[in-house]
Write a structure and sequence with these properties.
7-stranded antiparallel beta sheet, binds manganese (II) ion, globular, Jelly Rolls, 4-stranded antiparallel beta sheet, 11 strands, 4 helices, binds N-oxalylglycine
């Protein structure tokens, strides 16, 4: 992990590394995500936007579907060799961020995300209203030979007038500040696979 990446995160609130995962690990994780999808083990994602006390369940479900349409599976240590290798990499990233930026990150949570063609995630920030533990967001992409015309960009809204589109290319990683970075996932014409995760403070 180069120093420039950490510096860019501090200066701009986001950073991208074009090649973060090795090819073999990327392929293994993509195969695992696809396998979970084939076995119907992925679940409709929830947004956590509505406080737990909200009783308007019907309204909430409708809103969720209009807000995001990916499917996810949370990772558990030991579920596969590939996931353990990935979690080990994220553990060294956690230690690096703590050492360089004194962030006090003490936890990482992560899920596979599968966006079928047309699936999207509307504009949002990753920190929940009723839970401020999420500090740094991480997304790693698992899509070989992604073409820009296929859509599926992660759009970062850097400020009121500027946005940046990032293609979900295999092996690449994006980091951003969970509390402040407004972002969205644009629909694609093909399946879009990723691992999303959050370094959290207690
Ligand atoms: C998320 C998210 C971005 C992406 O899961 O919260 O914003 O590019 N994902 O998949
Ligand atoms: Mn997000």
């Amino acid at each position: 992990m180069p120093d420039e990446l950490i510096n860019h995160l501090v200066e701009h609130g986001w950073a991208r590394q074009a090649i973060f995962l090795g090819t073999d690990l990327t392929l293994a994780l993509a195969a695992e995500c696809r396998g979970l999808s084939d076995q119907k083990l992925l679940r409709i994602a929830k947004t956590g936007r509505v406080a737990k006390s909200d009783t308007h369940v019907q309204t909430q479900a409708k809103t969720e579907a209009q807000f995001r349409s990916d499917q996810i599976s949370w990772l558990t240590a030991g579920q596969s060799l590939a996931c353990d290798q990935y979690l080990l990499l994220m553990e060294s990233l956690r230690q690096r961020l703590n050492r360089d930026l004194f962030l006090g990150l003490d936890d990482y949570e992560s899920h596979f995300a599968f966006y079928a063609p047309g699936a999207f995630y509307a504009q949002h920030r990753d920190r929940f209203q009723d839970d401020d533990r999420r500090t740094i967001s991480v997304v790693i992409y698992l899509n070989q030979d992604w073409q820009t015309e296929q859509g599926g960009a992660l759009r970062l809204h850097l400020n009121e007038s500027e946005s940046l589109d990032i293609a979900p290319e295999a092996s690449s990683m994006i980091l951003f500040l969970s509390a402040s970075m407004l972002h969205e996932v644009l629909p694609a014409t093909r399946d879009r696979l990723s691992l999303a995760g959050w370094f959290r403070r207690r």
